[in-house]
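User: I want to check something. If I give you two sequences, will you return the structure for each one separately, not as a complex?

Assistant: Yes, each is folded on its own. Here is the first sequence with its structure:
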Amino acid sequence: MLKSIAGGVAALAMLLSVSAAQAASCGNDASGFNAWVDNFKRVAPSKGISPSVLETAFANVQYNRPTIRADRGQKSFKLSFDEFMKKRGGQAIISRGKSMKSANAALFANIERRYGVPAGPLLAIWGMETGFGSFLGDQHTLSAVATLAYDCRRSDYFTEQLYAALQLVARGDLSTTAKGAAHGEIGQTQFLPLNVIRYGADGDGDGHVDMVRSRADALASTANFLVGHGWQRGAGYQQGQPNFKAIQGWNAATVYQQAIAYIGAQIDG
């Protein structure tokens, strides 16, 4: 009898273990998403995320199909440099970037004193990412990141991003209703959540890192990101120069790196 009970307990434990593993597994369509979320919410408190933050953060989270479509359809990075510049409106970014540099001269001077990064590459990034803050994205950030954490293609990478996003929610630096780009990028220069944790800088001195509403925070954080990727004060940033390596840290696509360097140089003069 005892042996039978022990065997039953062992079988039940195995069944529960299998069920947990299935709930935790990634997926390539929406069918397993809710089960994955339930399992994530059970595990996350052991990683330091409070249950109250989880409940608040996941209240409006759902599988985000536009995120998956965007993740499967990244084609612009395969363009030539000239094609990429035309598609991204490179000349318009240069023209407006010069005006933005003049209009925000004190801010850029302060950032350069603090980080050693001139205005040009920051304006190039700001302009290409969001049109200088004119369009930050229309996808629910937490849904986008959670969807990619569940999706099998880069589950581990985006699970880390999801934990970072929840840390931002907990400290009041990310709204649970925030919208951004399809991959969960945040704010005026489109930081992934973990990069906000690592490189976010309080550029306006209010005690928070608000990548959405504060251009000072977004631009200071971008400069800090470049410093964190090897930016050397006073060195050049064109291809073959020391600081091009820092620009390479911003985006893996060679054509994007070339565009940052070129647009930045045109703005800086």
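And separately, the second sequence with its own structure:
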Amino acid sequence: MTGAMLKEHATPVRDLEPRKVARVTGRIIAVQVEPADAAPTVIVRIGDGTGFVHAVFMGRRQIPGVEPGRVLDIEGRVCETTAEPRIYNPRYELL
């Protein structure tokens, strides 16, 4: 990730702390949509060069413009997990 893409006040993924509000800017690596018979959920994997975070959007099956390769800025509370960090229903901006 180049410095030009990082938004002011963005936190590197490696520095995310559970239960704290954080802002992350990174490139969308993958988008996963839950099957039609499950609760509507879109999971977006974002990488910033220091690690990966999942943005989980509940109640949605698609988000216009959110696709692999795009740069996304998200903000929300980091959930504690043993895997990669997750932020549920973050505020987001496509860059």
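Because they were folded independently, the notes below concern the second chain alone. The chain has one domain: 13-94. Strands lie at 21-33, 41-47, 52-58, 71-79, 86-88, 91-94.
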